[in-house]
């Protein structure tokens, strides 16, 4: 019996091979997309899942009056361990904010991420050197590198560890031993490094109140997190009181590498301060003190792919139901011969399973084919099989689910025909499913319209971000990488020599460049109001190099010697925050100094478009700000290549402190990376829109062919009675145009709400445009007209005699 049913299934599939190919093809494309996205989503949502008890590990962060930060004081870790019994272990890490140079016999390489961790944190994250993790003795610093970086440092031959390497600029004559290789996948961890320093106490010899550490805690299983949060908060505030964080005391505890600075410890600020516990599992996608853009991209990708799968299943179901009449007599005969409905249902499910299985196999092949393009789009290096053992059980599960979704209802419809009716030629049962077929077709086009409108809106926002005035210009600015801090005298000598190069317009150094990173933060008082301000430690010509726009007063100038001591420039947001009406010439106090406001600069979107411009102060002299080490040179575009060549050839003489290698980036490319995630979202919508349009059009093509075929006698009678070709074409298109019209009425509000929520994540955004919705409606209508008209052409050309000769 099984062999008979299998033969019947294969014959039916071959007999209707065009519809079978459409069904399998649409499902295979959707499955290929689903497989790729499943790998990506699993990768993004499992960071640090290899860490034992990762669900019990939390990062401790601070809640300040105006922001949240992951950086905490050095003294907090020990205080938490001593005071709270629910905490099993506490670990700390500290990172550099510049590239780290290593000199080997094969040359010089630069580690972009070099971090120091204590022995406890290394154990907490299950970091395993090849020779085993040992606790450094006393104040020893054990330096390790991951496997991936070994081949970069020693491209010719891996050495026997330990091996001595130079560290930092070659003229510093500093050396250290790399103890060995550490097994750690930074690409899939929140602890990212090219080189790792393990020590017994990462904060030894540093000021306890310095806020440039990241603190992690491992809590006991079953701990009440709400109660733990209160205990941690109480310890944190007690530490603040003990350290007497007045402005002067905090400045003493500030390191030049500090990322966040808090300058006030009065009771009001203390009441508004606190801590938060951020689960390790959330740090990559949904950090409390950070952006959740990655999470939105991942979830959008997952939802869109599921919708594509739903459309493919709808397409499959719709076409299967549409062909029920062709199988009605087969069902009637089998029931007369004694077949039960459950047997027929199982038979049809087997047929659908066979199609889904073929679609899955083709989908896997397509996924393998398009994997390189996917890796390029999302800057990953996935393999379909290596490290993806979960696919072994996920793919069969997906196959079962899509078989049930696509096949249960059609199988029930097919097995439900009544023998007495169908054998008399009464096949009206199939019309009972007309509402479902129409509803599924509407659903297909609704999703396609949502994707089309979403793609156009995302593209409009990206175009706005690329073309809108940011308040500064980066087109001819080059950022030169550097590892040392400059004092004023040394930099002035270097600056004079760089400015002498033909084609150099200006040259400056600052603590920060416009790459989206947040500068340090300091409390300043003006007009009786104390506020936290972003502080950019600049030199002369900073504003001219980036071509920021002056609103009031003037920029820093060497003709005013006081500017180098206590001159300060505010941006518009800072002036607005203080409510100062005529700021130029007034005094603002910070870092235990009185500064004179010399100018007001227009707001510049240094952190991109997602966050509003922060109140910012610019100072040439700021004892509590990050050190000045980031070089920027403004070059005449026509002489760009020549200037860069001169700088490269003479860099050792120009910058004797750190002139080993001339490393640079174009500032517009650096700033452009802020748009990368949104560009990925655009790619997602582009792919999803193409897939949904393609699958929906395939479904429409097959469904319209079947519908028109079933109306051939009606069309012939109308032609006999005098209907023109245009009348027939209008008749056949009218039904499908109504379907698409309903889909637009449903899809537009859904797309509007989703797009509005996405645009609300931007501080600077476009107003919701109407054109994307109109274009989506127009494209869907044109595709429908072309698809249906192509099928209707055959019906129009058919002679009425051929259709009516048996009547």
Characterize the structure shown:
With 807 residues, this protein is an alpha+beta fold. The strands form 3 sheets. Strands 1, 2, 3, 4, 5, 6, 7, 8, 9, 10, 11, 12 and 13 form a 13-stranded mixed sheet that branches. Strands 16, 17, 18, 19, 20, 21 and 22 form a 7-stranded mixed sheet that branches. Strands 15-23-14-24 form a 4-stranded antiparallel sheet. It folds into 3 domains: 2-43 and 293-464 and 677-804, no CATH class; 55-282, no CATH class; 482-662, no CATH class. A hairpin with a 2-residue loop joins β16 (520-526) and β17 (529-537). The protein is built from 25 helices and 24 strands. Residues 245-267 have low confidence and may be disordered.
Residues in helix, %: 40-55%
- The residue-averaged pLDDT reads 83
Tally the helices. 25
Poorly predicted sequence stretches spanning 5 or more consecutive residues: 245-267
Counting helices, strands and paired strands, the structural category is alpha+beta
Tell me the strand percentage band. 15-25%
Q: How would you sum up the major sheet? A: 13 strands, mixed
Number of domains: 3
Rg is 34 Å
Q: In total, how many beta strands? A: 24
Distance between the termini: 38 Å
User: What sort of overall outline do the alpha carbons produce when their principal axes are compared?
Assistant: elongated
